[in-house]
Design brief:
Elements: H1 2-20, E1 26-35, H2 36-39, H3 43-46, E2 55-64, E3 68-73, E4 90-94, E5 99-106, E6 109-116, E7 122-131, E8 134-144, E9 147-154, E10 172-178, E11 183-191, E12 209-210, H4 212-223, H5 229-236
Parallel strand pairs: 6-12
Antiparallel strand pairs: 1-2, 1-11, 2-3, 3-4, 4-5, 5-6, 7-8, 8-9, 9-10, 10-11
Length: 240
């Protein structure tokens, strides 16, 4: 009789524990470090940046549930030096409808882009590290023959999410970096919270949505003639 009861007891005792381990909603705070000397290789642009400001630090928040992810810059009342050297995107993604809205600050104006989710081909490796108390596995995205992006994700968080538009891995990305270390994101705070729909709402009262191709064409028309124009346009349309 005891042998017959054991499987039943195991099911009712341990299955709830396994269920509680499934994390589908929360909030992650990221720190991003950008080496702007590596980002801007044009002499005309680098002349504007002194050595003391070659590393720029920005902070972002990511709220998510099982179907929505909302990545945005962390609000601050402090004056920001050299704000123009990095792009602070807001990215709203609907994993079920395969849709993405990106808000880019272009010369002081918020521009809204509408697109599908970005699909990346990841190579998952055996390399592991711990970030914020979570065991993470390393994955690699080859942008092209000369550019790679490294990601460290944890499958302890079930939602496929991460900084900017980065998704597609079996879990949440807690670390993200270019191969040369020019741009590095790391999770500084991970909060497991109940699903909060109000934290995942985006203002949709927008007069105009661009596609990425439309915005790039407009910027090239307006600023492509200037020596610094190409570098600044490329910074708007980088890998993120």
């Amino acid at each position: 009789m005891k042998n017959k009861l054991f499987p039943v007891l195991f099911f009712f005792v341990f299955v709830p524990l396994f269920s509680e381990a499934q994390i589908y909603s929360g909030k992650i705070t990221y720190e991003r470090k950008t080496n702007v000397y590596k980002k801007f290789k044009q002499r005309e642009v680098r002349e504007w940046i002194d050595e003391a400001h070659k590393i720029k630090i920005d902070y972002f928040e990511l709220c998510f549930n099982d179907s929505l992810t909302f990545f945005k810059p962390q609000e601050s009342e402090l004056r920001e030096d050299y704000a123009w050297t990095t792009q602070k995107n807001t990215v709203y993604q609907n994993l079920k409808s395969n849709s993405r809205i990106t808000i880019k600050a272009v010369w002081g104006e918020d521009v809204y882009l509408s697109d599908t989710l970005y699909t990346r081909k990841w190579k998952i490796t055996d390399s592991k590290r711990n970030i914020g108390g979570y065991d993470c596995r390393k994955a690699i995205w080859e942008v092209n023959d000369s550019t790679r992006i490294y990601a460290w994700y944890t499958d302890a968080i079930n939602t496929s999410t991460g900084p900017e538009s980065f998704i597609g891995l079996p879990g949440a990305i807690l670390g993200l970096a270019t191969e040369d270390g020019g741009v590095v994101y790391f999770a500084k705070k991970i909060e497991i919270v109940k699903n909060n729909p109000s934290a995942l709402k985006l203002n949709k009262k927008v007069k105009k949505y661009y596609t990425p191709a439309e915005l790039k064409l407009q910027l090239q028309k307006d600023y492509g003639k200037y020596p610094w124009g190409k570098a600044m346009i490329n910074s708007v349309f980088d890998h993120w």
